[in-house]
Design goal:
Layout (H helix, E strand, L loop, with lengths): L4 E5 L4 H12 L3 E8 L6 H13 L3 E6 L22 H6 L11 H16 L3 E3 L15 H14 L1 H4 L5 E3 L7 H10 L6
Parallel strand pairs: 1-2, 1-4, 2-3, 4-5
Helix pairs in contact: 1-7
């Protein structure tokens, strides 16, 4: 019997690595996507390569998309990265932080959705987290519910009644729970 396939968005950080380990443990054959989107920290890409190798993924695509040309974020623009705020201050703030990259998860998920159709994947895994989302609008559960509806309408599989499931396995976990889950799964570190 062939293993079911999943596309995993892998940045090389804790959340995406644990999500990839969850997908692997759930019996999926992993097709991994990493994005070089003009982020300041290229180290993420090297971490993603190490994690993908350790997890023995079926395929690892690194896509270059230049979000610097759009700007609007401290991660892709010349804006200063905010420093010195506590986790409580960030969580209490009503403002969307300057580290928010406009529509990043929508862009990434769109690439993942296309890739999932091509490789015949049943699922897309993304390491989004709503508890630590820091005001990012595209890390909320309602965003992913809405994106799932879009995926159902926008794909050949969806029209045929075989949806590509958008999975957010750590969406409701705090950082401690994510770390413990990663340790229990023996998730690699980038």
């Amino acid at each position: 019997m062939k293993a079911k396939k999943a596309v995993v968005l892998l940045s090389g950080g804790l959340d995406s690595t644990v999500s990839a380990a969850i997908a692997k443990k759930s019996g999926y054959r992993l097709y991994v996507m990493t994005f070089d989107y003009g982020q300041r920290h290229k180290r993420e890409i090297q971490s993603a390569k190490r994690v993908a190798k350790i997890l023995k993924v079926a395929e690892h695509k690194i896509l270059k998309i230049d979000l610097n040309q759009i700007g609007g974020s401290a991660l892709t623009d010349r804006m200063p990265v905010p420093l010195g705020k506590s986790a409580a201050q960030i969580k209490a703030s009503k403002e969307i932080p300057s580290t928010y990259v406009p529509a990043r998860n929508t862009i990434f998920l769109s690439f993942a959705l296309a890739y999932a159709e091509v490789v015949g994947a049943a699922a897309i895994f993304i390491g989004a987290n709503s508890l630590d989302y820091s005001g990012y609008p595209d890390c909320r559960p309602e965003y992913f519910r809405t994106y799932q509806a879009l995926a159902n309408l926008a794909t050949k599989k969806g029209v045929e009644g075989k949806r590509i499931s958008v999975k957010t396995p750590i969406i409701n976990l705090n950082k401690k729970q994510i770390i413990l889950k990663g340790m229990a799964l023996k998730a690699p570190s980038g």
